[in-house]
Amino acid sequence: MQQSKVITIIVAAATLLLILWFAGAFQSDTLAPGHVAKSGPARQPPQVTTVAHLQQMTEVIESVGTVRPRTETRIEAQVTGKVREVRVRAGDVVKRGEPLIILDDRELTSRRVQAEQSFQSAKAKREQARQAISEAQAGNSKAVAQFQRIQKLFKDKAVTSREMDQAEADYRQALSRLEQAREGLIGAESEARRAAEALEETRIALGYTVIRAPEDMQVARRSVEPGDLAIPGKALLVVQTAGAMRLEAFVREGLIRRVRPGVEMNIVIPALERTARGVVEEVLPSADPATRTFLVKVALPDIPGLHPGMFGRLLVPAGKRNAVLVDVNAIRRVGQLESVLLQDKGSWTWIYVKTGEHQGNEVEILAGLSGGETVGLPGADHAN
């Protein structure tokens, strides 16, 4: 019985030790900040060395955002009509003035023919009115001369009162015809003007049946197919400035004072593994009350492979801090472990370190070095 208890205790202890071993309790791969963990002496001293040094660095805070085109335009129909042809698809690059969508123009063509006929008829009426007013003016001039002659003779008592009355009646009748002719000309000119405007409207409407690209752009979205009804206000296509992108990021209110239009800032596109410099174009003057962030728009340079909708980060400077930097060639990586060859009391020893951001040909050491240490640059003489 006593022997069984001893065996049980031994098995339990062995099991516990095995669990602790798999959990990594006896491994020293993890490096706590500010501590130096040694991985073993080097077989040979290095031939080339460098010194880990302290340098003031700008601390940045990442603000997430989305890549969007700098200019995005909705293409809509100016007239109502059925779509006869769509000549582009999403992703196509188009030139200014290039036809994008063709609408059915049969109804508008018929309206233009009718407007042309109405305009020609109005022009004919206007010419008739002008002819009528010329005739009325001639008749009026003749009646005025006759009236003045009879009036003079009547004063000399050379004509009767009846002849005088007849001359006056003829004069008034000619004057009335002239006034009617003038009113007719005004009406004819007004009708001709309206007909000309209607004809011009149909011509313009016919021009709208061919929807063209407003600028050199790229088709972002297509939401119309042949046979669909196009009406004003309904987006048929969305086009964007080809190649011109910007990052729209949300910056928290505590950092917005560091972001101003015209300032250059670093941006990161993780999908492309690219870091680039962008220029702040616009900072919206009001914050989102739900997130306490401001929308910041940063113009991006031409980056191959960049597309609207991609994820990006805006690196906002948040202050200065001291950092330990060392040549990137001093870092040896084995799996996920990083180490440097450190000179310690006349001997060379590999120690574990933790690296951070890269600064050109140097890398920040977050833990393992404090600055001023001499480290070796890996080479064939001490690669192991």
From TrEMBL:
Domain CzcB-like barrel-sandwich hybrid: 73-229
GO-annotated molecular function: efflux transmembrane transporter activity
The keyword Transcription belongs to this UniProt entry's keyword annotation: no
Sequence similarity: Belongs to the membrane fusion protein (MFP) (TC 8.A.1) family.
Keyword Coiled coil carried by entry: yes
Native species: Desulfovibrio ferrophilus
Pfam family, one: Beta-barrel_RND_2
Keywords: Coiled coil
InterPro entries: Beta-barrel_RND_2, BSH_CzcB-like, RND_pump_MFP
CC per GO annotation: efflux pump complex
Domain CusB-like beta-barrel: 247-314
Protein name listed in UniProt: Efflux transporter, RND family, MFP subunit
Coiled coil location: 112-198
